[in-house]
Specification:
heterodimer; A: 4 helices; 42% helix; B: Rossmann fold; six-stranded mixed β-sheet
Chain lengths: 110, 288
């Protein structure tokens, strides 16, 4: 899994690619919580367009990020989910709990 | 011959079958239980192993997860000869496997949540906070939200079974084995387990092996079925192929026909009186 950060309008986009699994979710968690809790970024976008697969450790890390962002009064926004990632979110009954958009344009406009 | 695949050897490619059995024989105390089982399970496939009591299906399952060692033959999992590897390589394969035992096999001294968390705490470096959320996600998936602080002794049989499924799912295994998942469950809970198996296949592309003799469940969840009888593969095919099979043993199983009574009185007499290969031990110095 690769993580790259972009700054736009004082917000951060984390571009993720590859598989978010047991081996890689700690790195995503660290990057995510760093943006939310340490940098206090008001909006953090996760670009999942190039994520092929996410397991439950990845989902749990996203939940931790969402909880932290709500505690901070900031927003965590996901976009670009493929069918597999959507199905995992659905099975975890989280698709309505997260802010999810189709693409970057919609996410930034939200 | 170089460049030509050997059909007796499974592919080691990642695109090959997830599981391959090649001539697997298993014996207990000199008695052979499995007589050279050969079949493949494709990635993302749900295979149901059917068979009556004593057919060898549970032995087959135990062999697949590495709890029994074949006396001959090979079990290949994810491109590795599981029956030949050891140490770290074998552990790596084991981490890809989740197993839901028939009786649950939960640790009675741990809470349900601790039981589900155990493989994550033993095999990963995830933070406790991440593991706690994963445990709740897994328990929610099996309909046990809010039960993480319960002890196994406080759960019904069906709930224990679902908790065991949650533990088997903890590591997001690529291959999930279920031993009689619906046995002893009421029809609504059993239907919930069937739906869970379908959901896991859909969302996580898991390869799932289910041992059962519940035909309704088998027809709902199986991509393919294999019927085992007296340690041999009798038939293998899709639900439709099995349904339409004219093989007598398949028909007997599908149509739920009891074992025939001994047809002839003479046969029955012979069965009662035939010489057994093992003679009763005799007292020293005494002869017949």
């Amino acid at each position: 899994m690769q993580i790259a950060a972009r700054a736009i309008q004082g917000w951060t986009i984390l571009d993720l690619s590859g598989d978010i699994d047991l081996a890689h979710s700690p790195a995503m968690r660290k990057a995510l919580l760093g943006e939310i809790k340490e940098k206090h970024t008001p909006r953090v976008f996760l670009n999942l367009k190039n994520v092929r697969y996410i397991d439950s450790s990845g989902i749990a890390s996203l939940v931790e990020g969402l909880k932290a962002s709500r505690d901070q009064g900031s927003r965590l926004i996901l976009y670009g989910l493929n069918k597999t990632v959507r199905e995992v979110m659905q099975l975890s009954r989280l698709q309505k709990i997260f802010e999810i958009y189709e693409d970057e344009e919609q996410a930034l406009a939200s | 011959m170089p460049g030509i695949a050997d059909p007796t050897r499974p592919s080691t490619s990642l695109d090959g079958p997830m599981i391959s059995l090649r001539g697997v024989r298993v014996s207990y105390s000199g008695r052979e239980i499995l007589h050279g089982i050969t079949f493949d399970v494709q990635r993302g496939e749900t295979l149901v192993i059917l068979g009556g009591s004593g057919s060898g299906k549970s032995t087959l399952l135990r062999t697949l997860v590495g709890l029994e060692k074949p006396t001959s033959g090979e079990v290949w999992i994810a491109g590795k000869n599981f029956s030949a590897i050891s140490g770290a390589e074998r552990d790596d394969i084991r981490k890809k496997i989740g197993m839901s035992f028939q009786g649950g096999a939960l640790f009675g001294s741990m809470t349900v949540g601790e039981n589900v968390a155990l493989p994550l705490r033993e095999h990963t470096k995830l933070e406790d906070s991440t593991i706690d959320i994963m445990v709740r996600l897994k328990l929610d998936q099996v309909g046990l939200s809010g039960y993480e602080q319960y002890m196994p002794s406080q759960l019904s049989g069906g709930m224990k079974k679902r908790a065991a499924v949650a533990r088997a799912l903890a590591m997001d295994p690529e291959i999930l084995f279920f031993d009689e998942p619906s046995a002893g469950l009421d029809p609504i809970i059993a239907a919930g387990i069937d739906q869970l198996i379908l959901d896991l296949k859909q969302a996580f592309r898991m390869t799932i092996i289910v041992v059962t003799h519940e035909l309704a469940s088998a027809f709902l969840i199986a991509d393919r079925m294999v019927l085992i009888n007296k340690g041999d593969v009798v038939a293998m095919g899709t639900a439709k192929e099995m349904q339409n099979s004219t093989h007598p043993r398949v028909r007997q199983f599908m149509d739920r026909v009891p074992e025939p009574a001994v047809a002839q009185e003479l046969d029955y007499l012979q069965m009662l009186t035939e010489q057994q290969p093992k003679q009763r031990s005799q007292s020293p110095g005494k002869s017949r």
